[in-house]
Design a protein that fits this description.
The chain is 71% helix and 0% strand. It has 315 residues and is mainly alpha-helical.
């Protein structure tokens, strides 16, 4: 059966990569330490895939329908969780006799009331930008648009490495600056997914993967002359290569990925709260990988429960 116009192929390995990326994000939040092997790849990989899907969804749903869905899907949970985490912080500060308003600035409008909530307004910003660009370029060649967006993303990644290396940027601008390259890079990947010519899609995905790996090798050879924040470049390059390979090699579907992947947004929003509760109970602290798996599983279970209640708007 052929694909419908505007549809994208089922990419099982992309879903598995999203699961791995979220697990790495949770692991960093529970320990502020990077896991071995996948160190630091979770956030850029998740951002790249999120924006790639924004591109394909805006094409399939139309700009108006896509934006209406995105605003409802992102803004309502963000507002609700911002209130929840605000209450948590106020209660903790009251218990410790600390100033209740300390740390709350106008930056919460793009960062939320807890460190990790910056992702939601940034995701909404990326959705709006990608939908706008897609609406104005949908008739142009997917191949050329994809290649141009990938090159633009590479330039933004390099320039942002210079900014981040200065150490002068703080939350939430720090997170927004780091995440910005994922918008053009993700848009470029999305245009590759929209290409009806499978050979073209594979060829450009291989090119993206190859260029990313070349950047990594080049950086390892010339560390002294690398950008001030070479780690930013490394994380994006390796993540781009992994995403490109997942597009080239879609893999067979499995029931676990299909059931867990739709829960990831709720897992991201809720896992810091469960971690707070776990720490407040003074329970034993296992190794980072184990604690991250525990928080991931507990958050996924919570999301499944909330989806079946009137509180499903939270997730």
């Amino acid at each position: 059966m052929g694909m419908r116009p505007g549809s994208t192929p089922r990419l099982a390995n992309v879903e598995r990569l999203r699961l791995l990326a979220m697990y790495e994000i949770v692991a960093f939040h529970v320990s502020e330490q990077r896991l071995p092997v996948v160190a630091g790849l979770g956030l850029p990989a998740f951002l790249l895939l999120n924006n790639a899907f924004n591109c394909t969804l805006s094409e399939r749903m139309g700009t108006r329908g896509f934006l209406r869905t995105k605003v409802g899907r992102l803004l309502v949970p963000w507002l609700l969780w911002s209130v929840i985490y605000l209450v948590v912080q106020l209660v903790e500060r009251y218990r410790h006799d600390e100033p209740l308003t300390e740390g709350f600035t106008p930056w919460i409008l793009i960062g939320g009331t807890y460190d990790h909530l910056w992702f939601v307004p940034f995701s909404l910003f990326g959705s709006l930008l990608i939908a706008w660009v897609q609406a104005r370029t949908s008739k142009l060649s997917h191949g050329w648009m994809g290649l141009g967006a990938l090159l633009l993303g590479a330039a933004v990644t390099a320039s942002n490495a210079l900014v981040l290396g200065s150490g002068a940027v703080e939350w939430p601008l720090l997170q927004w600056t780091f995440a910005l390259p994922a918008v053009p890079l993700g848009f470029g990947l999305g245009r590759l997914l929209l290409a009806t010519d499978a050979a073209l899609r594979r060829r450009l995905a291989w090119i993206a993967s190859g260029l990313a790996l070349v950047c990594v090798v080049f950086g390892l050879m010339f560390v002294e002359g690398s950008p001030p924040d070479w780690d930013t470049v490394r994380r994006y390059c390796v993540s781009l290569a992994l995403v490109g390979l997942a597009i080239v090699w879609p893999g067979p579907s499995d029931p676990v990925s299909q059931r867990v992947a739709p829960l990831l947004f709720g897992v991201y929003l809720s896992h810091p709260l469960l971690l707070r509760l776990y720490q407040a109970a003074h329970l034993p602290v296992p190794p980072t990988a184990v604690l991250a798996l525990l928080m991931f599983a507990a958050s996924a279970l919570l999301v499944r429960v909330l989806q079946r209640t009137p509180l499903r708007s939270l997730v």
